[in-house]
Design a protein that fits this description.
The complex is a heterodimer of chains A (about 300) and B (about 160).
Chain A lengths: L11 H5 L4 H14 L16 E2 L5 E2 L17 E11 L4 E11 L3 E11 L1 H5 L7 E14 L9 E11 L2 H7 L5 E13 L8 E12 L7 E16 L4 E8 L13 E8 L5 E13 L2 E13 L2
Antiparallel strand pairs in A: 1-2, 3-4, 3-14, 4-5, 5-6, 6-7, 7-8, 8-9, 9-10, 10-11, 11-12, 12-13, 13-14
Chain B lengths: L1 H11 L13 H7 L17 H4 L2 H18 L12 H15 L11 H4 L7 H17 L4 H12 L2 H4 L3
Helix pairs in contact in B: 2-4, 4-5, 4-7, 7-8
The chains are: A mainly beta (about 300), B mainly alpha (about 160).
The complex binds protoporphyrin IX containing FE.
């Protein structure tokens, strides 16, 4: 393990304020599930709503897809809450998110990402606090369809991100505490795909200035990145898949690698989904070879 | 990371191979079945054809009956079928699925847009019908890959049925 020491002692007071916010975010996610619509909101086929990605947008675990959050079809709406946990041994990342999908057209989501720097803290290189970033996002379905017709579903999205840890952002040499991503995603689900099984493929093009999702701040210069997902429903309720998310690498102090995961997703019904993944995040915050597991649970009323 | 991707592909690859026919006993019956086709065309029973995988004429009939049970019980769409002549609808669906799956039948009912005109069937209702169809097929013992191959054919009719 290679730890690059970031001297931040003076930052701890400001950072500590954010410490309990994550729990609040989980509570809000739970309330969003309970307070969902009583109207019909189950018009999509099982699996067609995807999971909630780490940034809160509907998609795979790491990659936003063109699908609109929840099971609401045209003429319906649905709310979703999700929590996820990534642990590489050296780091852990908790996220909580809520989203609402309207008319299978528009998705709005909010997420709180909270990074624990276990290894850096243990090495005495960092105060014992978590780094938090908020993501507010919107996604619009432009056209096409996930399943029917000739064209894949095409959506455009924007993710506005704000890191709450200005002193860290300054210390690592990032330009800003706030930034935004814009992306275009194309998704298609073949009912009789690989082996006669439902098969979903997604490609996402993103323009971003975020260092590690914005947890380490933002660069003034934007980078184009490509992301992709492939998932096969080996049974009607169990999917196996893989995801890839290329990343900018614009921070000298903390080099960044592309992300990769393989996952098994469980979709027992339209109310609860869960996925367990093996993730390879490469170098994070100056610590190399970050592999670990990723668990996410999503609920809709 | 390449390694993990390779592992995934290996894990998935056996699913891609053709499955042995699970509908063995039903398939031969179909050739001798009297209502195979109004035109008397010989049903194509090539092994691995969807028609064979669905269990031929007998399998398709059993499957359609199971689907109808699900549709009738589905409160979300049952309101559309209040005046339905179920024997007529069953026979048309059997014909249509036989034809679509390569069984050599000829569908004698109304064209899809006419059959569903004035109903303003929504996208959600179409999907619910697909769910009932899936459940019926599963209960009738249709293998998963055959279920999905049939659903993929039915999905092509989406534009002719929704919003008519
Ligand atoms: C791909 C899917 C579908 C197929 C293959 C299909 C097939 C048929 C056929 C063959 C008929 C009879 C046509 C005739 O009168 O000659 C029919 C009628 C009908 N279908 Fe569909 N259909 C499909 C989807 C749906 C959906 C999604 C709904 C509603 C949720 C629906 C509701 C009806 C109704 C209400 C009738 C009229 C029944 C009656 O006579 O009372 N269908 N359909």
């Amino acid at each position: 393990m290679q730890v690059q020491s970031i001297r931040l002692g003076h930052a701890s007071t400001a950072l500590r304020l954010a410490k309990h916010d994550w729990r609040k975010a989980v509570l809000i996610a739970a309330l969003a599930i309970l307070a969902g619509p009583a109207l019909a909101n189950d018009g999509k086929l099982l699996g067609a709503a995807g999971l909630s990605s780490i940034d809160g947008s509907a998609g795979g675990g790491l990659v936003p897809w063109a699908v609109i959050a929840g099971y609401g079809e045209q003429g319906q709406w649905d709310t979703t809450g999700a929590v996820s946990y990534v642990d590489t041994g050296d780091f852990n990342l908790r996220t909580a998110s809520v989203s609402v999908g309207w008319n299978d057209r528009l998705e709005l989501s909010a997420a709180r990402l909270s990074l624990g720097l276990d290894a850096l803290v243990a090495a005495g290189a960092f105060p014992d606090v978590r780094l938090d970033t908020d993501v507010l996002a919107a996604k619009l379905r432009l056209g096409g369809d996930l399943i029917y017709g000739d064209l894949p579903q095409l959506s455009a999205g924007v993710q506005w991100r704000h890191s709450r840890d200005r002193e860290l952002i300054d210390a690592v040499g990032a330009d800003d505490t706030t930034g935004y991503d814009v992306y275009l995603a194309a998704s298609r689900l073949w009912i009789a795909g690989i082996g006669g099984r439902r098969t979903l493929a997604n490609v996402t093009l993103r323009s971003t200035g975020a260092h590690q999702l914005g947890l380490l701040g933002f660069d003034d210069d934007r980078t184009f990145v490509v992301e992709g997902s492939l998932a096969v429903f080996v049974t009607p309720t169990v999917a196996l898949g893989a995801e890839y998310r290329s990343k900018p690498d614009a921070l000298a102090l903390a080099p960044e690698d592309d992300w990769f995961d393989v996952f098994v997703g469980w979709f027992p019904n339209k109310h609860w989904h869960a996925a367990l993944a093996y993730v390879d995040l490469g170098s994070v915050g100056g610590v190399q070879d970050q592999q670990g597991f990723y668990l996410t649970i999503k609920g809709s009323p | 990371m390449r390694f993990a991707f390779a592992l995934l592909l290996i894990a998935l690859s056996p699913i891609g191979h053709t499955r042995p026919l699970e509908a063995g006993p039903a398939a031969p019956v179909a050739t001798s079945e009297e209502h195979a086709s109004p035109t008397g065309a010989a049903p194509a029973l090539a092994p691995g054809s969807l028609y064979a995988d669905l269990g031929g004429q007998e399998g398709i009939t059993r499957m359609v009956e199971a689907i109808i049970v699900e549709v009738k019980a589905d409160k979300r769409i049952a309101y559309l079928f209040e005046d339905t002549d179920w024997d007529y609808l069953r026979d048309r669906l059997v014909e249509q699925i036989c034809e679509l799956s390569g069984g050599g039948c000829e569908y004698t009912g109304l064209p899809m847009p006419d059959a569903h005109s004035g109903m303003a069937i929504t996208r959600a209702e179409f999907n619910w019908f697909v769910e009932d169809t899936e459940r019926g097929m599963r209960k009738a013992g249709v293998p998963l890959a055959a279920q999905n191959r049939l659903l993929a054919l039915l999905a092509k009719l989406h534009g002719d049925i929704v919003g008519q």
